[in-house]
Amino acid sequence: GISNKSLNLYYRLMGAVIGNDVSINVNCDIAEYDLIYIGDGASIDASVIRGFALDNGCMLLGHIFVGSRASVGVSSVVAPNVGVPSHNHLGPASTSYDLAGMSNKSVERLNSSTFEEPNFMTLACIGYPVIYFIGAICALPEAALLYHLLCAPWRAHELQTLMDTISWFMDPRRIPFFFGLRIIRGIVSPILTIIASVVIKRFVIGPFKAGARELTQKELLRHWLMERLCSRETISDVSLLVGKHYKGVSWIYRLLGAKVGERVFWSGSSNLFSGEFDLLEIGDDVVFGSRSAIQCSTKDTLEPVRICAGANVADTCILLPGCTIGKNAVLGSSSIAPYRWYLPEASVWFGSKGSEPIQLDEGLDVGRECPLQLCGDSSTLRPFGDAFYNRKATYFVWPLSLVIIMSILISVLRSVLHAMPMIAALQLAKHILFYWHDFEDFASSPEISHVDIFVALIFSYNITHMSRMMLWFCFEVCGKWTLVGQRKAGGFNWNTSSYPQRWSMYTTLTSIRNGGGLSMLDFFNGTPYMAYFFKALGCRVGKNVCLYPTGCRHQPIMCEPDLVEIGEGSVIDDAAIVCHLNTKGNFSLVPIRIGSNVTMRKQARIQQGGVIENGSMVLERSLVMTGDVVEQDDVWLGSPAQSIAKNDKLC
């Protein structure tokens, strides 16, 4: 995805039909390419464009159509066989079922794939060299360790033959260097990356100011650099080292230019941000959920996003340019804060209908926009801030220094675990070849055939990879039952219960499943092994249940499996089953029950206390609210979701 043209060429080579002047965000989830048709001049933001869906236990493949001059907004889903007609515009946080969300052309201004980018010469002469230079700086510690390895005194001979090379790679004295490289890559490189990004931001890119978005090459380059230097992955890698929920993340945002208050509870999964940190204001005692997106720019303007003291931004929310979330206001799960909207103090909002949230409580200052209240008071103080920062809790709360030490140790464990298969495979292959050819060392041995070496390495790697999988499984399952134990329904605030702290420690430990851009669970997607994994964590799973066949990229994977019951024959795609609420920092757990032969499609979500009865279906990006009951054989759609048909009558 170096450019739109190269990305579109890749999709065409994979079988998609893509017209001229099409702009597709590199973070867009596109698959089943042969079923995709995108017309001339279409614009697609970071959304889901897939021809795959689940339908009553079966795989459904359908055509995806995005017409000419149409657009698809951020975090939206285009469902199979339900396309976006030409010259229509699907707003943010919508689905192609939501025809009302397509009528307003103004939403196209919010689509980041329509934003102009620097021309090729600017990128070739400045943009890419800056990115490569930062990458080279961050690779210096690894290069230094490699140089030390190459200069080791025990490397006495030149590598002239294949046997010399194999002997060199299988020398056990190289093992500490292999582990060291992975540890540096997991700990030192992310820190150097964020330091370099801060330096470039402060001394090269400079601050962003609200107003018109200039289209000069200099301004376009500034936005392009920030988007790549301060990506979600970059901030997430560093937050794993400094504590995902704590003030280390606040320091990072402040260094990048944001105004961040005290006692902010950050999400376990970093939020997607457009990069104009100077336009982001976050008050005291704000609580964030995971996987939300914050955008401060439109196609032609830069506008601030303000989150006042005590506000709550829950999971998978979208905050659009110019929005303000008032003091103690709640933006619930899967909600949207629309362009230039003000959500009044203490108001409560949920979901998205026509790219606008549904109001559940009108709050205190209805009909007027009060002055910004970024400083907290007694009404904004949350249990997390009281426990962690004021040290007022009924149990021992880990200080930040201890959190950072634990996080770094877990990162070391993750690095060692993922380096182990190749290192162990080389040593095992060496012993296999010794036994096979009956010689004492490689240096004095005759040449071994390439086939023998290849077979020994493949056989060895299969064994060591399976060993890594079993070690990870033991770490994660034992960690769950040791740190968290059996969950029970109830309230567990940070200042009265140690559960949130133990849960935070456990979620940090689960990061060992991630390595090299993949998760260990990716090997289990849609297989019986995924069901076995969640059974080991306490989930009650019936026979023939299929979990996450396309992975869990857009929603948090099942967070509290021991409070979830799933009946026989049910199919759960990239959907969220969340038994907890952390509204205004008040943490509670309530079980969820999913019946037999239930289908939850991509980005569907069920909140705590929800029930989905037998034979029902929850369609794409639909939200089953807290305590809702989806009756037997119902089909629910929307955010918040409601019944639209009976399953046996749905065409």
TrEMBL record:
Specify the domain of life of the species encoding this protein. Eukaryota
* SUPFAM superfamilies cross-referenced by the UniProt entry: Trimeric LpxA-like enzymes
Keyword Transmembrane helix on entry = yes
Put simply, this protein is called Uncharacterized protein
Q: For this UniProt entry, which segments traverse the membrane?
A: 130-155, 175-200, 395-417
Origin organism of this chain? Leptocylindrus danicus
Keywords carried by this UniProt record: Membrane, Transmembrane, Transmembrane helix
Lineage here is:
Eukaryota, Sar, Stramenopiles, Ochrophyta, Bacillariophyta
Q: Does the keyword Ribonucleoprotein apply?
A: no
User: Where would one find coiled-coil regions in this protein?
Assistant: none
